[in-house]
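Q: I'm writing a short explainer about Reverse transcriptase domain-containing protein for a general audience and would like to include a description of its predicted shape. Could you first generate the structure from this sequence?
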Amino acid sequence: MPWRTDKKDLLPTNYYRANERFRRLINRLLKEPELFRANHEQIMGYLQSGFISKVEAPDQPTTRSEFYLLHRPVIRSQAVTTKIRPVFDASARTDEGLSLNDCLETGENLNPELLAVLLRFRWHRVAWVGNIEKAFLQIEIHAEDRDALRFLWIDDLTSSTLEKEPSIFCWNRVTFGLSPSRVPYYCASLYESILRALKRWILP
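A: Of course. Here's the predicted structure. Afterward I'll give you a sentence or two in plain language.
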């Protein structure tokens, strides 16, 4: 991740605050079992797809930044496919007043001007349009940065599991929880570099 060199080493762990928020979230979801189940299925789907991983040795000392993303389920009634999506918050501040987003570079705006897109669309008789499914989730996070994208959740919905300490997971891919000004930059810069490489390969 594009860390700010003046902030990266200042980001403290926020495990206890994240655990407190996690407990409140669980208590709320227990009153809405359908929402609870749907949210759990989404997170387990991320795990099966390799988008997230379970941290098997969370107590092992690390010299990397260790940050826990707060999250909650959001209902999207207008969505055609995914009606419920866990939303992660990288802007939540620690007791020291820092958030993960504070420690990341914003990046320049790489989105093309809409007028230019419309004009180019009319240049030729045929226009190509494409869509990358789950585009952000196709971008892999460097292994050394994943400890800064941890979050708390449970392994299953049994009562015995709910009574235990939560499991720790981490993101392996770019998540929507990062600032809206940062995620499109990561996505656009990566795919722009891929397109440049393809152009050199196709048109040497």
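A: For your explainer, you could say: DSSP finds five helices and five strands in the chain.
Q: Perfect, that's easy to follow.
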